[in-house]
Amino acid sequence: MGAEIFNILLSGTGGQGIVLASRIIAMCAFKSGFDVKESEIHGMAQRGGSVIGQIRFGKRVYSPSIPVGDADLMLALEELEALRYLHYLKKKGIVILNHRQIPPAGLDPSQYPQDISERVKSKGYKVIEINAGEVAKELGSSKVENTVLLGVLSLFLPFERGIWKEVLKEAVPEKFLELNLKAFEEGVRLGEEILQSQN
């Protein structure tokens, strides 16, 4: 993990489940023996408004807020939100970019930029692209989109697979647990495939 503190930024829109995803990551960090701080910032507390989650963990963490330019990794649940918060990332930071477009209120959908991945790459960031919504649908429910993304994210974090599963068991209602565990494993598998293809 190199640095004393590892900083993760989640970006997306209201209704995408960022708060729960942030808490799952923070709980994994805590159960892995790290000091952890977590916060969420809601631009607008309505569906479609901008939302970010910040998780910081290490030996000792004093503040829950990630300084601009200090995030090691961004998990972007929505493409335009990735662009909006790129300034938080370190040089050569990692972006896990979910292929989902939710045009903000007031933006004509035809004006939504179609080259976001290229824009992010052009700034020197490592980009892992995934259509988690499509994967989730193939597994049987669009509701596990975030769990697929957490599976991809887990490849970059120093938490054992068993801890992720333990936390998912605590965070997810029992009737959805099996599907979420499957979605997590599928995210891990796809993430490994993408990383191998990039090397």
Explain this structure.
- The protein has 199 residues and is an alpha/beta fold.
- It has a single domain, classed as Pyruvate-ferredoxin Oxidoreductase, domain 3 (3-Layer(aba) Sandwich).
- The chain has helices at 18-31, 79-84, 116-122, 132-139, 145-154, 161-171, 174-198, and strands at 5-13, 35-42, 50-58, 71-76, 89-98, 126-130.
- A 6-stranded mixed β-sheet has the order 2-3-1-4-5-6, sandwiched between helices.
- α1 crosses α6 and α4 crosses α5 (145-154).
- The radius of gyration is 16 Å and the shape is globular.
- It starts with a strand and ends with a helix.
Supply the key terms.
single chain; 7 helices; alpha/beta; Pyruvate-ferredoxin Oxidoreductase, domain 3; 199 residues
SSE topology sketch:
Blueprint: E1 5-13, H1 18-31, E2 35-42, E3 50-58, E4 71-76, H2 79-84, E5 89-98, H3 116-122, E6 126-130, H4 132-139, H5 145-154, H6 161-171, H7 174-198
Parallel strand pairs: 1-4, 4-5, 5-6
Antiparallel strand pairs: 1-3, 2-3
Helix pairs in contact: 1-6, 4-5, 4-7, 5-7
